[in-house]
């Protein structure tokens, strides 16, 4: 049985993002993959909690796809987390609705990879900055995978956009169709790095 994947896409300036336009264009056309553009669905931030919870229940793998915004996510995705991951449903003594689901973040950032290090301009690694999201997944009994990250989008050319977009499409096809043990990713900072080992 293929995995059902829900891509929760959050980009307030999607029309200006060459990188994310390329990524989204390479999402496989599959009945098992749902692309859900939060800013298109909720321009007034009036999130339908029950609808979103129903969507989550229908999928095995959840992807938070967004640009890095001030070392975090765009505000609508944060609001989605605050509203949809309800106590007693997603977490708490009786909150097991999401137990066993996989969570992956697909991140774009203008900064280069070397910037995100103790000696770089941003001081912290991407996994360190995403730790609150990782902990959120754990509290909700989900399995958090290392993030899929695209660095340097501000200086990237069209060939670069297409290279990573193709890779993203391959990742989604793999997640949809190939069984794998999340423990295999232990020790990998980025999903990209682990996935390259699967392509060989």
What is the topology?
Layout: E1 5-9, H1 18-25, E2 33-37, H2 38-41, H3 49-57, E3 61-67, H4 75-84, E4 102-108, H5 126-129, H6 131-139, E5 143-144, E6 148-150, H7 158-177, H8 191-199
Residue fraction in strands: 5-15%
Radius of gyration: 16 Å
Q: Characterize the largest beta sheet: strand count, sense, and whether it forms a barrel.
A: 6 strands, parallel
Distance between the termini: 24 Å
Q: Please count the helical segments.
A: 8
Overall structural class, as computed from helix and strand content, comes to alpha/beta
Which overall shape is indicated by the principal axes computed on the Cα atoms? globular
How do the SSEs run, as a string of H and E?
A: EHEHHEHEHHEEHH
How much helix, percentage-wise, in residues?
Answer: 25-40%
Name the assembly state.
single chain
Low confidence ranges: none
Whole-number mean pLDDT? 92
Annotation, overall tally of beta strands: 6
Explain what you see.
36% of the residues lie in helices and 14% in strands. With 200 residues, it is α/β, with parallel strands linked by helices. Helix 1 links the parallel strand 1 and strand 2 (33-37). The mean pLDDT is 92.
């Amino acid at each position: 049985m293929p995995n059902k994947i829900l891509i929760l896409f959050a980009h307030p300036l999607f029309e200006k993002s060459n990188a994310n336009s390329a990524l989204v264009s390479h999402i496989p056309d599959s009945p098992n993959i749902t692309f859900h553009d939060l800013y298109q669905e909720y321009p007034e931030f009036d999130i339908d909690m029950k609808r979103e919870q129903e969507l989550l229940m229908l999928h095995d793998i959840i992807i938070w796809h967004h640009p890095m915004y001030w070392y975090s996510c765009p505000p609508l995705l944060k609001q989605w987390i605050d509203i949809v991951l309800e106590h007693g449903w997603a977490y708490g003594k009786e909150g097991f609705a999401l137990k066993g689901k996989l969570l992956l973040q697909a991140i774009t950032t203008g900064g280069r990879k070397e910037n995100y290090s103790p000696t770089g301009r941003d001081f912290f690694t991407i996994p360190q900055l995403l730790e609150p999201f990782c902990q959120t997944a754990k509290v909700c009994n989900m399995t958090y995978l290392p993030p899929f990250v695209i660095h340097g989008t501000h200086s990237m050319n069209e060939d670069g956009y297409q290279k990573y977009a193709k890779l993203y499409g391959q990742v989604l096809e793999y997640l949809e169709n190939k069984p794998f043990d999340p423990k295999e990713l232990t020790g990998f900072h980025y999903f990209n790095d682990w996935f390259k080992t699967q392509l060989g």
